[in-house]
């Protein structure tokens, strides 16, 4: 990324791969403790509501007491749900976030002491923190918008002294502005900065530092885009290995070898289909994964081969051995409900080695049947 604007745009367009994130946490045995902590948040929320209900400054009206009881029940359900049931899918997660945001604002509106209610909006930073980790910038922006609307309404009610308010904060415009700025600082500044930094570190961890392509871990994070339980369109994998690259390094030096790798990455990015991902899987080996959209796999693979063979302004010609594999779903997708990356990668890799045995600068297309997992094979890559 060459400038700050392009970086911010990339962050805004970034969609958190929710399922991959959960699987990553689970692979590090972190999902259990995290479920416990998130569930414990329900206990804290319920306890805050109980204390506010028993206070003279809390929910003293019939509507306030009814709403408080509803929130206490909701907090208990939240805790049991997180402790006893598997982690929710992305849609359920968003519904819980919306419900908690509504409950927090409703609680604060119905609290008798308007200053206490306005300061209670800081609790929206809790759901904001969850969104920062598990959902993307647009969802966080909606949450921040809701938080700002809530605190503006509550601060206005505090300053005006309505309805049935205590005198605490009434007529004190400066105090109303301070309360708004506190919430703005927490939800409108801290949370976006935290999410942006988290995104930047994640992108860095999933990228190859030399070529800026995805690395193997980055490839894994994008696989759900192409390999799901429902196969709707063809998926292809092209594996490229630069020919005799050790000789290039020995002859011209490793600095020149790095230049070759960088230019190869740029050429592959330019030649790949628009929605494909380009990966440096290690050393001088690259991989391109994408949907065919009706294109011929041979044409796609040869375009990538040609892009490498025609890198300009080099003292020697660089070529690549190319193997390609595709999975074209049958009309009856139930026969193979899940396309496994492991089989498609293995087919593409084997085809690449056959191309290398033929002398390099060649494309070999794997037999489509090689990419189809046996029906009895229940393992997943």
Describe this structure in words.
This protein is α+β, with helices and mostly antiparallel strands and 381 residues long. It contains 14 helices and 5 strands. Strand 4 (320-327), helix 14 (341-357) and strand 5 form a beta-alpha-beta unit. Helix 5 (90-110) runs parallel beside helix 8 (137-160), helix 7 runs antiparallel to helix 8 and helix 11 packs across helix 12 (254-271). The protein starts with a helix and ends in a 16-residue tail after the last strand.
List the topology elements.
Blueprint lengths: L3 H10 L4 H10 L3 H24 L7 H23 L5 H21 L3 H6 L4 H11 L2 H24 L12 H33 L10 H7 L12 E8 L2 H8 L1 H18 L5 E6 L2 E7 L5 H13 L10 E8 L13 H17 L5 E3 L16
Parallel strand pairs: 4-5
Antiparallel strand pairs: 1-3, 1-4, 2-3
Helix pairs in contact: 3-4, 4-5, 5-7, 5-8, 7-8, 7-9, 8-9, 11-12, 12-13
What order do the SSEs take from the amino end to the carboxyl end, as H and E? Answer: HHHHHHHHHHEHHEEHEHE
Strand content: 5-15%
Helical residue percent? 55-70%
Order of strands, main sheet, comes to 2-3-1-4-5
The major sheet is characterized as: 5 strands, mixed
Mean pLDDT: 86
Q: Classify the secondary structure makeup into a structural class.
A: alpha+beta
Low-confidence spans: 333-337, 374-381
**SS summary, helix count:** 14
- Could you give the distance between the termini? 31 Å
- Please indicate the count of domains: 2
Number of strand segments: 5
The geometry reads as elongated
Rounded Rg = 28 Å
């Amino acid at each position: 990324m060459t400038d700050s604007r392009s970086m911010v745009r990339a962050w805004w367009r970034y969609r958190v791969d929710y399922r991959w994130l959960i699987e990553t946490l689970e692979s590090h045995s972190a999902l259990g403790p995290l479920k416990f902590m998130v569930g414990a948040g329900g206990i804290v929320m319920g306890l805050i509501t109980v204390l506010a209900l028993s206070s003279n400054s809390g929910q003293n009206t019939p509507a306030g007491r009814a709403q408080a009881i509803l929130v206490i029940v909701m907090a208990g359900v939240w805790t049991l749900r997180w402790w006893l049931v598997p982690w929710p899918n992305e849609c359920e997660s968003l519904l819980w976030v919306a419900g908690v945001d509504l409950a927090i604002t409703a609680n604060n509106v119905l609290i008798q002491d308007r200053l206490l209610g306005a300061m209670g909006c800081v609790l929206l930073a809790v759901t904001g923190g969850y969104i920062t980790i598990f959902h993307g910038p647009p969802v966080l922006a909606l949450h921040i918008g809701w938080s700002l609307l809530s605190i503006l309404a509550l601060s206005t009610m505090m300053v005006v002294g309505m309805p049935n308010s205590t005198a605490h904060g009434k007529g004190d415009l400066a105090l109303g502005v301070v309360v708004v700025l506190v919430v703005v600082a927490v939800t409108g500044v801290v949370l976006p900065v935290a999410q942006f930094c988290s995104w930047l570190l994640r992108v860095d961890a999933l990228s190859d530092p030399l070529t800026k392509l995805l690395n193997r871990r980055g490839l894994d994070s994008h696989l759900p885009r192409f390999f799901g339980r429902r196969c709707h369109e063809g998926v292809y994998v092209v594996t490229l290995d630069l020919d005799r690259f050790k000789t290039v390094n020995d002859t011209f030096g490793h600095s020149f070898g790095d230049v070759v790798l960088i230019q190869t990455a740029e050429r592959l990015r330019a030649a790949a289909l628009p929605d494909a991902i380009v990966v440096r899987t290690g050393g001088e080996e690259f991989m391109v994964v994408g949907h065919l959209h009706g294109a011929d796999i041979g044409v796609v693979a040869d375009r990538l081969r040609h892009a490498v063979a025609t890198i300009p302004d080099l003292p020697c010609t660089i070529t690549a051995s190319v193997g390609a594999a595709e999975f074209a779903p049958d009309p009856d997708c139930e026969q193979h409900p899940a396309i496994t990356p492991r089989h498609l990668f293995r087919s593409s890799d084997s085809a690449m080695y056959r191309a290398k045995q033929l002398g390099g600068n060649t494309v070999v297309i794997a037999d489509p049947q090689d990419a189809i997992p046996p029906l009895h094979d229940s393992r997943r890559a």
